[in-house]
Amino acid sequence: MNMRAAGSVFIDRHFHALTHRNYRYMWFGQCVSLIGTWMQNIGQSWLVLTITGSSLKLGIVAACQFLPILLFSLFAGIIVDKYPKKQILIVTQTVSMILAFALAALVLTDTVRYEYILVLALLLGLNNTLDMPTRQSFNVEIVGKDDLMNAVALNSTTFNMARIIGPSIGAVMMAWLGAGWCFLLNGFSFVAVLYGLAHIETAPYVRKARSKEGIFKEIKDGIVYIAKDPLLSPTVLLVAVIGTLAFNFNILIPVFTKNVLHMSETTYGSLMSCLGVGSLAGALTMSFRSKKGPKLKVSMIASCMVGVCLILNGLTSSVWICGVLLACTGFFNIMLATNSNSALQMNAKDEFRARVMSVYALVFAGSTPIGSLFSGFIADHFGANGAFIVCGMLTGALCLLITWKYKSSLSPKLVGSQGND
């Protein structure tokens, strides 16, 4: 067997979503764009901390960026259901590009202020409110249900490759040229994903509106549908806990780097990359086992392990041990996110999928404002170590409670039981 044939067999076995032409366009575009996104993420966090010196104010920026998702994601699910998702993504990705250029212009002209960063974070949050459920529910249109979990795992792989590369490049860029160049390059990176979207050809699923149903009735129906499902409900609850208490790395890691380790932005970038290395390993693990389908037990174990890793991270002041623990945290985080995302999409009926994914966006990212303010407040009063410990203890306790409450839902027959309805 020659190298090309061997490569084709490997891709078909472990990355079979890439055999779909439309998905390849989307995936390669995201490979470029997400590197820019992570450069902007670490650049913005370090910029805010440098300007204000306050963990709480850094938390407020993160809260502004995710507050719109908390407030409006349920309404976004209704919109996503009724319009072609490709067209929505072209609009949202263009808006993200414009906002990145705006932040770059403010920094490079030395006119940036904390208030301006808050406004741009809020606008980006509004845009992401529509973008997130659209991207999540677009996967099934371009790969189908059989390859959906593999596509979700590959998306996580891309995201975490970018989490390794982006912070590393961003840290060097900040040290040599300043944060403004991180934002400028992020703006240009959206060209790749817009090019990919322009070449995708697919028949969109658009749900016909029921004339007698108002928007609030549709939202209520989606929530009731999730609450009554023995697989969807515990999955959503686990994601809510992790999204609120364990996804505050943009707050805690820069504060930990500056105030506990007393290191510079290069160490901050390295620690974020460690998180990405672990997350990449988790994404690849889920990709290799994607043909087995999502299992609720995986989400339960992974969520509890995230809590343990956070507690241990709060007990160390060594940069090396911290890097290893962040890698472990990233590994279990992505196992949970990939497994949960796949379970929700594969088990939701077509007419409810966008609404289910809007709830996923709500609990995964929309809960971040609460967690950001909470972790920022704890870090301001008890230090970054204390914030890691408190968030870890609450994460572990709540995930154990959910596991105990829904232990009867662990039967394998529940997974995928509704996927073909």
From TrEMBL:
**InterPro entries, sorted:** MFS_dom (IPR020846), MFS_trans_sf (IPR036259), TM_effector (IPR010290)
Q: How does it sit in the membrane?
A: Multi-pass membrane protein
Give start and end of each Major facilitator superfamily (MFS) profile domain: 1-410
Task: One GO cellular component term, please give it.
Answer: plasma membrane
List, in alphabetical order, the Gene Ontology terms for molecular function in this entry: transmembrane transporter activity
Q: Gene3D superfamilies given for it?
A: MFS general substrate transporter like domains (1.20.1250.20)
Pfam families according to UniProt: MFS_3 (PF05977)
Keywords, comma-separated and alphabetical: Cell membrane, Membrane, Transmembrane, Transmembrane helix, Transport
Question: TM segments?
Answer: 23-40, 60-80, 87-108, 175-198, 236-256, 268-286, 298-315, 321-338, 359-379, 385-404
Q: Among its keywords, does the record have Aminoacyl-tRNA synthetase?
A: no
Q: Where in the cell is it found?
A: Cell membrane
The protein in question is named MFS transporter
